[in-house]
Design a protein that fits this description.
The complex is a heterodimer of chains A (about 150) and B (about 110). Chain A has about 150 residues and is an alpha+beta fold. Chain A contains four helices and eight strands; from the N terminus they run E-E-H-H-E-E-E-E-E-E-H-H. Classes of the chains: A alpha+beta (about 150), B alpha+beta (about 110).
């Protein structure tokens, strides 16, 4: 686990420093061709995404996870401040996830702070627990990191 | 687990749980004080937390003592940790992509 993780109630914060300038990191969230290359877990074989990258614009992802089937969700961009911040929300079954991403410049490197506020329902929990081995491996490692 | 997240969606309820986790068992009246809300309002919040199994109530005559239930939070935290693991895995891939892009930029 290279990211720093903070969990508080229903709020999750994942912080990661990328060794790349801010415009590149932001660009990877803005361009569907690039986004498709890194979005989704290891077992994700096909990511399709359509995005209208502007405030109020819609976003939709469809992905195929080996052994778990196809999943899709749709949402909307709530705030875009290039190259500093993106906020969006998406629905998944009856659940709504709110995600905001901040990009902070750090002398040629970029600190990314992702905040997720999630209200999962059954389908969402099932979705996240798919591809369990990988997720649990990582979870174990995460917990070890947190304890250390 | 939906009940847990719904219960935690409210900032006052979140603070109640945080306070209980830090200070241990607390009487309802003492719990109401720092939040500047009426006793009936606190009671409503506590009922929601009770239903989500995030707290436990002990009746001591007329005094109701509240404590946090550790096990109530566990499932929700596990779920959040799994989300974190997925983001971390995404960011590994993003890291690789950014390295490739920078190599390409240098070559130009």
């Amino acid at each position: 686990m290279k990211s720093e993780v903070k969990i508080e109630g229903n709020r999750l914060q994942v912080t990661r420093v990328f060794d790349a300038p801010r415009h590149l990191v932001f660009g990877a969230w803005k361009d569907p061709v690039l986004l498709r290359q890194w979005w989704g877990c290891k077992d994700t074989t096909k990511v399709e995404c359509e995005m209208d990258f502007r405030v109020g614009g819609s976003l939709s992802y469809k992905m195929n996870i080996t052994g778990a089937g196809e999943f899709s969700y749709t949402g909307q961009y709530d705030e875009i401040v290039e190259p500093e911040k993106i906020a969006c929300h998406w629905g998944f079954g009856a659940a709504t996830m709110r995600v905001s991403v901040e990009f902070i410049e750090q002398g040629g490197r970029t600190k990314l702070i992702l905040t997720q506020e999630g209200f999962p329902d059954q389908s969402m929990c099932q979705f996240v627990s798919q591809g369990t081995d990988e997720a649990f491996d990582k979870l174990d490692r995460l917990l070890v990191c947190q304890e250390a | 687990m939906t009940a847990v997240f719904a219960a935690l969606a409210d900032p006052t309820r979140r603070r109640i749980v945080e306070r209980l986790t830090r200070h241990g068992e607390t009487p309802v009246t003492a719990l109401a004080e720092p939040f500047h809300v009426s006793l009936p309002a606190i009671s409503r919040h506590l009922r929601v937390l009770e239903r989500a199994r995030l707290i436990q109530r002990k009746r001591d005559g007329r005094v109701h003592r509240i404590r946090a239930r550790r096990d109530g939070l566990q499932d929700a935290q596990k779920w959040m940790a799994q989300c974190a693991a997925i983001w971390d895995s995404n960011f590994d891939a993003l890291d690789e992509l950014l390295k490739t892009q920078q190599r390409k930029e240098k070559r130009r």
